[in-house]
Prior knowledge:
Layout: E1 2-6, H1 11-22, E2 27-31, H2 40-48, E3 53-56, H3 62-71, E4 74-79, H4 86-91, H5 93-113, E5 118-124, H6 147-165, E6 170-176, E7 178-180, H7 199-207, E8 214-217, E9 229-230, E10 232-234, H8 235-251, E11 254-260, E12 266-267, H9 268-279, E13 285-288, E14 297-298, H10 303-309, H11 317-330
Parallel strand pairs: 1-2, 1-4, 2-3, 4-5, 5-6, 6-11, 7-10, 8-13, 9-14
Antiparallel strand pairs: 9-12
Helix pairs in contact: 1-2, 1-8, 3-5, 5-6, 7-9, 7-11, 9-11
Amino acid sequence: MAILVTGGTGFIGSHTVVELLNAGKEVIIVDNFSNSKPVVLDRIEKITGKRCKLIEADLLDYDKIENIFKENKIESCIHFAGLKAVGESVAIPLRYYHNNITGTLNLLDIMSKYGAKKIVFSSSATVYGKPKSVPIREDADLYTTNPYGETKLMIERILSDLYNSDKEWSVSILRYFNPIGAHESGLIGEDPKGIPNNLLPYIAKVAIGALPCLSVFGNDYNTHDGTGVRDYIHVVDLAIAHLHALERAEKVTGVEHFNIGTGVGYSVLDIVHAYEEAIGEKINYKIVDRRPGDIDECYADPTRAKELLGWQATRGIKEMCRDSANWQKNNPNGYDS
Ligand code: UFG
């Protein structure tokens, strides 16, 4: 019986596939390559010594996805596929709603039809909006500030309604905090298109001289040094959390939400300094205005994941910066290098 991994060649998807293959699982990737490349499969094979099935398909193509279920014995799904850029989602909301929501509805409908009723869903701490207090627990208020976040929250609610209608479903909703780092082999990592929006990929480009200077968005936040605080988590730790969630889904039915973070918050300048230490060089940065929509601080209370999934992050900020720098050095142009 196979696990279908949608978006399995993306940043988090590819790291999760590595962990699944290393654990001896049968994996089928479905991806439309809207933000990733087929060559990722070669890299995964280099790391694991295994090649899994990769099918190019879009979740909006119902018939093509249904064929995958007809032709393979699929028992569960880890669902990563989706558009994920916050700013872009404000500019083209209809595309985000159509792609993320309709794609997921198609997938769930087909899974129901073929009796594959176990799903691990890639959600985000974005569903907490501007948290009232930190660390954030899973029962905190939910609200969103952009269409991307809204699609994550809507899918969470769709999954709950689905379970309420059919108690055979096992639904594990993982709310990721800020995934960074890369596989320690330096063979797979984050490969954003164009100029990165997120902090770590931006720092990594400045470090190799591909971009001149990091703009630190604001130093007047209510944090220890005035710069924004986030819960950065090593992508390999995050990938491993999916294995734990899948194992639990095999045993229990229901809908469960888990924060997947370290529980520790670091500021932008903490990260800059950790990165400088990792590479032994200075990072050029300047303080600029706040980025609209950013919040002071956001970090997880990951207790529930520890108690129910038996999972906790083991890699610290040092490993995150080291592995991110190693990936960027080996692949200055990402997968086109
Ligand atoms: N930052 C800078 N300069 C940059 C980029 C970011 O100073 O060039 C700062 C931001 O202001 C923030 C911190 O670095 O304080 C982290 O910013 P990111 O853009 O890396 O991440 P966000 O926390 O804004 O967003 C991330 C994901 C979203 C997800 C959100 C909530 O990108 O998809 O976490 O979990 F919704």
